[in-house]
Amino acid sequence: MKAMIAELVAKTDLDEGQAEQVANVVKGFLESRLPDALKGPVMGAISGENVDSAADALKGALGGFLGD
C-alpha cells in the first residue's frame, strides 16, 4: 500500500493524506468486486505481500478466461 501511495503522490497533485484516501478507496473497490480466487493474492500485492503469487493467480485466471 505504501508503494501505491508513493506513486500517487509522485504522479499527481495529491498530498500523502489524500493519496492514502485514494488508495483505500481503490483497495475497497477491488476487494468488493474481485472473485474470491483473486481477492487474497491481489490484496496481498496491494499491501506489499505476495506480489509473485498475485501475478501467478492473475495469469491463471486470465488464461482460463481467454481459453489458454
Can you walk me through this structure?
The protein has 68 residues and is an all-alpha fold. It folds into two domains: 1-33; 36-68, no CATH class. It has helices at residues 2-11, 16-33, 36-47, 51-65. Helix 1 crosses helix 2 and helix 3 runs antiparallel to helix 4.
Summarize the structure in short.
By secondary structure, this protein is an all-alpha fold.
Task: Give the arrangement of secondary structure elements.
Elements: H1 2-11, H2 16-33, H3 36-47, H4 51-65
Helix pairs in contact: 1-2, 3-4
What structural class results from the helix and strand content? mainly alpha
* First and last CA, distance: 31 Å
Rg calculated over all Cα atoms: 14 Å
Shape: elongated
Low-confidence stretches: none
Helix tally equals 4
Work out the oligomeric state of the chains in this entry.
Answer: single chain
What can be said about the biggest beta sheet?
Answer: none
Into which percent range does the helicity of residues fall? over 70%
Number of strands: 0
Mean pLDDT: 83
Helix-strand pattern: HHHH
Number of domains: 2
Task: Quickly list its features.
single chain; 68 residues; mainly alpha; 2 domains; 4 helices
